[in-house]
Specification:
By secondary structure, this protein is mainly α. It is about 80% helix and about 0% strand.
Length: about 400
């Protein structure tokens, strides 16, 4: 009996312990569920806060972008206004001219018992027609076509509109006829301003005008001094397809045909230049032979020259002294050393001929100084060799 009771108490104790454990587990599960729900609510709140923060940042960025775009547009407009003040005022003047012209024409037509709608259409026809032709001319000019007929049409229609406004001004403001001239000018002034804006800046600059003037003077001088060559150049251009030769190329070709030389040169000029070079060489040869006498004469001429400022300086071609007033220092003449014998000079003659050929190839004259430098001999010997070389060359040419 006691054993049964003990078992029952143990069972009840076990049941109570199991119940407590179940309640503990249920409480823990409930606490975990609450914790999960709280975590979910926290995450939702955090996500919502982040989304709101992202939305605010996006709205702020969009607002800043709009401000930046507006600032850029304002800056661009300001730059354009600063760079194009003439265009701004031209537009203002055009509006101030066109609107009174249209109102004046409407008043003139309604005053002539024309219905208001028709008067408005006719006024728009006159002013609008002038501007339609103007813009068509601008489009044709941009395309490279001749805009002359469009400009003539523009001014013709504008003149008709100006006549209407002028007539209306005389009738409406008879006591002040000057108003009629103002109203008539309102139909012409906008066209004139636009024409200046689109064509006034296309004129030539002062430098271009001066260049054109110089070019015309050059062509005139060319025709005056070289008429045959100019005529030949025109014939060459006419014989070839159009655009093959320009004026300068044609003139150069004609010059070569007539003279056989490059433009600016001719046989006569070559002969004159050659004669001048030979004369200069002869003068230097004379200087080689009588250098001391020439120097002494030059010094005396410099001292006796009444025009001191015209006396040549030592850096000029003559090189006969300076403008100083001091007398030249007399140098004692050296006793000439006896030169080479005829046999020695005859042995040097082949070398002298070769040296002379080199001088000619270099474009220089056959001079005693040149031979002396080439052969490394004294000038006295070079003078004799020079005469023999010249004689040999003459015999060879003959």
């Amino acid at each position: 009996m006691s054993s049964y009771r003990e078992d029952r108490r143990a069972d009840r104790a076990a049941e109570r312990a199991q119940d407590r454990e179940d309640r503990r587990l249920e409480l823990e599960a409930a606490a975990q569920r609450e914790q999960l729900k709280a975590e979910e609510r926290r995450k939702d709140t955090e996500a919502k806060r982040r989304q709101e923060q992202a939305d605010r940042k996006a709205k702020l960025a969009e607002k800043q972008a709009k401000k930046a775009a507006a600032a850029a547009k304002r800056a661009k407009l300001i730059r354009w206004l600063k760079a194009n003040p003439a265009t701004l005022f031209v537009g203002f003047v055009m509006v101030a001219s066109i609107v009174p012209a249209i109102l004046s024409q409407i008043g003139a037509l309604t005053g002539a018992s024309v219905a208001a709608p028709m008067a408005g259409l006719l006024a728009a026809m006159l002013e609008g027609g002038a501007w339609a032709i103007t813009f068509m001319g601008k489009q044709a000019e941009d395309a490279g076509r001749e805009p002359r007929k469009y400009r003539i049409g523009t001014w013709a229609v504008a003149a008709v509109a100006a006549a209407v406004n002028f007539w209306h001004g005389l009738e409406a403001y008879g006591e002040h006829p000057w108003v009629a001239f103002v109203l008539g000018a309102s139909s012409l002034f906008a066209i004139y301003i636009w024409d200046l804006k689109t064509h006034g800046s296309h004129g030539k600059t002062r430098e271009q005008k001066q260049a054109d003037k110089a070019r015309r003077a050059h062509v005139s001088a060319r025709r005056k001094h070289h008429p045959q060559i100019v005529e030949q150049a025109v014939k060459l251009q006419a014989a070839l397809p159009y655009g093959t030769l320009d004026d300068e190329a044609a003139f150069a070709a004609a010059w070569r045909i007539h003279t056989g030389a490059e433009p600016g040169l001719s046989a006569q000029l070559y002969a004159t230049a050659t004669e001048a070079v030979l004369s200069l060489g002869a003068a230097f040869e004379l200087g080689d032979n009588v250098r001391e006498e020439l120097l002494e004469t030059g010094f005396k001429a410099a001292r006796l020259n009444p025009f001191i400022e015209l006396t040549q300086t030592p850096t000029t071609q003559a090189g006969i002294g300076s403008n100083a007033s001091e007398p030249p220092v007399d140098k004692p003449r050296e006793t000439p050393v006896r030169g080479r014998s005829d046999e020695e000079l005859n042995e040097l003659l082949p070398d002298a001929l070769s040296a002379a050929a080199e001088l000619v190839a270099e474009g220089k004259q056959i001079s005693a100084t040149g031979l002396a430098k080439k052969l490394q001999i004294r000038r006295e010997d070079a003078v004799v060799l020079r005469d023999r070389v010249i004689e040999q060359r003459r015999l060879h040419v003959a």
